[in-house]
Design a protein that fits this description.
The chain has about 375 residues and is an alpha/beta fold. Helices cover about 40% and strands about 15% of the residues. It is built from twelve helices and 13 strands. This is UDP-4-amino-4-deoxy-L-arabinose--oxoglutarate aminotransferase.
Length: about 375
């Protein structure tokens, strides 16, 4: 058994990135400034997006996008239940109603087939989730949104570096990325809204900084125009230069991070192949490049006991995620219950995320596999 605890995730921060943060701290300009503008440009170039707006979190980005689209009371927004609660929470906070689509049992992705039956005259938007680093099958979903006149917002929190049919997520339409510390690249906390809709990005830029008609930092004035007017009520969702300079360094290494993640996953699959109680997620059959944000398995045993036993063996784990429609607020407010989304519920009861981060060693993967085998053997005794 390991003598040192292996966390579920650890950010990979270089000395060069630490030094860059130090330079910003010494510069006197530590909030939204030139590095934030550079980060937006670099991330847009990386994804191929027409434009990008940096925000303090993906949740903040989603809030701004939903508001910019006019989502409010009486509207319905279709999204999966097997995702982080922030999206559904924001829909509710805006007075709209979340409508949960079921997922593919193996890949955990929503699809046109699971979304289309839920579209009504009240539906205003669809929010598919690119899950664990793989993309949803977007072409049919885009076609559905176009046919029905619906807004389409891609939850790309797991998808920095993910490709769909040869194009990076973020190049087309509107996508929101997360830079939380467990993500493939980090700014500490932060997010990015990418879009080919110039008017939408302008609204997001205003909403994320008090509703002003200009940003906190303008490339021309090298600051904010003192006479800037408030054109709508807004928020304090801007990213700092401290975070942005870290993001610039991380972005340069993102492809390398993702390549290492893929190597670790290949080793996991090899080491776990002979354990029938452990079922990794399936891979989409359409063209894609997986970013491997998470390595998720479904455990055919009591998950609570399984995760606790791994912790006793110095192996950290995560749970991504519990089905939203079975959370207390949603059962009590909307009358949701088991049986509504069978594939979602089956996975919600079984999924477990194993350690995965670029600085892991091959031996770490072997230790996890050995701990799983030991845990399952002990459960049979």
């Amino acid at each position: 058994m390991r003598t040192q605890f292996l966390p579920f995730s650890v950010p990979t921060i270089s000395e060069e990135e630490i030094a860059a943060v130090g330079d910003v701290l010494r510069s006197g300009w530590i909030t939204t400034g030139p590095n934030c503008a550079r980060f937006e440009g670099a991330f847009a170039a990386y994804t191929g997006a027409a434009g990008a707006v940096a925000v303090c979190s993906a949740t903040a980005g989603m809030h701004c996008v939903l508001l910019a689209l006019g989502i409010g009371p009486g509207d319905e927004v279709i999204t999966p239940s097997l995702t982080w609660v922030s999206t559904a929470n924001l829909i509710c906070l805006l007075g709209a109603t979340p409508v949960f689509a079921d997922i593919d049992r193996d890949t955990l992705m929503v699809s046109r087939e699971t979304i289309e039956p839920l579209v009504t005259s009240k539906t205003k938007a669809i929010i598919p989730v690119h899950y664990a680093g793989a993309p949803a099958d977007m072409d049919p979903i885009r076609q559905l949104a176009s046919e029905r006149g619906l807004a389409l917002i891609e939850d790309a929190a797991h998808a920095a570096g993910t490709e769909y049919n040869g194009e990076r997520i973020g190049k087309k339409g509107t996508a929101i990325f997360s830079f939380h510390p467990i993500k493939n690249m980090t700014t500490g906390e932060g997010g990015m809204v990418c879009s080919d809709d110039e008017a939408l990005l302008a609204k997001v830029k205003s909403l994320k900084f008090h509703g002003l008609g200009v940003d906190a930092f303008d490339r021309q004035t090298q600051g904010r125009t003192p006479q800037a007017q408030v054109i709508q009520p807004g928020f304090k969702y801007n990213l700092t230069d401290i975070a942005a300079v870290l993001g610039l360094g991380q972005l340069k290494r993102l492809d390398g991070f993702n390549a290492r993640r893929a190597e670790l996953v290949a080793r996991y699959r090899e080491r776990l192949a002979d354990i029938p109680e452990i079922l990794p997620l399936g891979l989409p059959e359409y063209g894609h490049l997986h970013a491997w944000h998470l390595f998720i398995v479904r455990a055919a045993t009591d998950r609570t006991v399984f995760m606790a036993a791994l912790k006793e063996r110095n192996i950290g784990t995560g749970l991504h995620f519990r089905a939203i429609h079975l959370q207390k607020y949603y059962t009590e407010t909307f009358g949701m219950k088991r049986g509504l989304l069978p594939n979602t519920e089956w996975n919600s009861d079984r999924i477990c995320s194993l350690p995965l981060f670029p600085s892991m060693t091959d031996a770490d993967v072997d230790d996890v596999a050995a701990a799983i085998k030991s845990t399952l053997a002990a459960a049979k005794d």
